[in-house]
Write a structure and sequence with these properties.
Helices cover about 30% and strands about 15% of the residues. It is built from six helices and five strands; from the N terminus they run H-H-E-E-E-H-E-E-H-H-H.
Length: about 190
């Protein structure tokens, strides 16, 4: 199997012509990921999620719900409209670092977030995943579960013809819509 990796310096840089790719050479590409990785975070902040959990005003936080154990946040560099993350407040890097009760609580909330997304953004499906370790695509070494809504028309004209992802709503609009129905999340545990 031949794999091709293309690393762009910024989201403004164009992808090279890859029309000769075979079906098994497909790749995932997030043009905004480099923008996030290049974002300057104050040197004394070791973990952006920990800073958010501590309400550090120097970092942005788009919280839909939080309690003493976790936060449900909009991803500020979303892969799709309505992309949410479930983040334990305690700094852990992996599932094995969580106690059994914490794992149970985390995934009880993941199920509730799926329910919230189905009600608010009405996706055709939802990708749920974690990137544990830099080799797996982790950009923040703090465990978090990503829930990315997938829509029937995600492969429309703009995506297929112009390599452009059309976001249906702003992060602020999504935050407001999710918060209006966040009571769904309150009885997760």
């Amino acid at each position: 199997m031949v794999l091709r990796t293309v690393r762009l310096k910024s989201s403004a840089e164009q992808l090279p012509d890859m029309t000769d790719l075979k079906p098994y050479e497909k790749y995932l590409w997030s043009p905004k990921r480099d923008d996030y990785e290049a974002k300057e975070i104050p040197e004394d902040i070791e973990c952006i999620f920990c800073a958010q959990a501590e309400d550090d005003e120097r970092v942005s936080k788009e919280t839909v719900f939080e309690d003493d154990f976790l936060m449900v946040e909009l991803n500020i560099f979303p892969y799709n409209t309505g992309h949410l993350m479930v983040v334990p407040k305690r700094h852990v890097n992996s599932m094995v670092d969580l106690k059994q009760e914490e794992r149970n609580r985390l995934f009880a909330m993941v199920a509730k977030v799926e329910e919230l997304q189905r009600e608010v953004v009405e996706p055709a499906g939802i990708d749920v995943g974690m990137n544990i370790g830099k080799a797996a695509g982790e950009s923040i070494p703090h465990l978090h579960v990503q829930l990315v809504p997938i829509y029937e028309k995600d492969r429309g004209f703009m995506e297929t013809s112009l390599d452009t992802k059309v976001m249906k709503k702003t992060i602020a609009d999504m935050k407001e819509e999710y918060q209006e129905r966040a009571e769904i999340l309150e009885d997760y545990w």
